[in-house]
Amino acid sequence: MAQTPLRAVIVGAGLAALRGAEALREAGFTGTLTIVGDEPCRPYDRPPLSKHVLAGAIPADATTLPGSLGLDADWQLGNAATGLDRESRTVRLADGGTLPYDRLLIATGTRARPWPNPHEGRLAGVFTLRGRDDAAALRRALAAGPKRVLVIGGGFIGCEVASLCRQLGLPVTLVEPGPTLLARVLGSTIGAFIGAIHEGHGVDLRCGREVEWLEGAEGRLVRAHLVDGARIDADVAVIALGAVRNTAWLDGSGLSADPGGVDCDAEGHVLDAAGRPDPCIAAAGDVARFPHPLYDGQRVALEHWSHAVAQGLYAGRLLAGAAPGRTYGALPTFWSTQGDLVVKSAGLTQGADAVAITQGDPAAGRFVALYGRAGRCIAAVSVDAARWLPAHAELVAAGAPFPPRGTATDRPKGVAVVAPGFP
């Protein structure tokens, strides 16, 4: 009797899902492959949305990722997963249908964190930026020439949008409750340098301030009211308050999952509520929370493009049985283009107890900051200095002593070690 082909289901239709599907096939998986996505379109590239699409250089629908058209898969798009029954090994769908699986990859990613007041968040002129439709709608609003754009949140997306507005010649105010831009990610020491560069480009920067409520007139945004009583007149607001991981559909599944992510073991299999790995299920991309070997097994969930690629490929091979007994631990890397400012990083800054400028000069707007913890290098961030980053990434990957020893071209004399200034 012929053996029934295995059935693989991938929930999520983004970058990690696509690379996972490709890896499954390349590793020799010949069974049926179904990809489920809540959006009606094929996987697309997100980084251009806050850059080229908002600038009008390319349309939003020109961001489709290569590789999806020729993939041997059944695409269930615009039909979100709503539940998981591990006993019967089925995924429930929004249209009432179910999909049986023998292997399951969870790659549901994240969604933009909405404005906390739903009524205010629905005002015309208020936007979030996560998906392709978000970018297209915001592009139309910016092209209409608003009198002022308000960006709420000084993380990477907020900084990218503010810079883009200045490129378009639009007045923009960025409100960030932290002490500096990017303080949560890079610390206030480096965040202050980046903030100064943005102010030099004309961004009206309000750090240490917080928007209390958004005022509308006839259903359209007219101004924002700050906690300290100040008001900012604006006809467009971009809510850039971070992301929420898409795990609600796993409620009741018995898996270890919460708004912070889906827990995995060191090999990439998803854990159940008792901490036991399910050998039939893996997770990849933004939604996966896993112990990183470079950081003493600390559980992390990473929202990085390169991580989605690397972990998607790894998870696909894992589910195909082509990567048994290995540990996933790629060095995290990230980049952000903010106008003519390019920020790149290697490693994770969380937990750093010291930082030093080891290359270049912040006053010139071009430098590398190296982060240390307990005398070891754990992360490096370059600002318009990408050519210096690979050497620093090697120090991070090796857990080299911090501060670094020896000399290097353009390294400041007498490297000063200071507190990173995390909130």
UniProtKB/TrEMBL annotation:
UniProt keyword annotation of Mitochondrion present: no
Pfam families documented for this protein: Pyr_redox_2, Reductase_C
Taxonomic source organism: Methylobacterium longum
Superkingdom per UniProt: Bacteria
Residue intervals of the Reductase C-terminal domain: 334-406
Every FAD/NAD(P)-binding domain range: 8-312
Keywords associated with the record: FAD, Flavoprotein, Oxidoreductase
Name used for this protein in its record: FAD-dependent oxidoreductase
Cofactor names: FAD
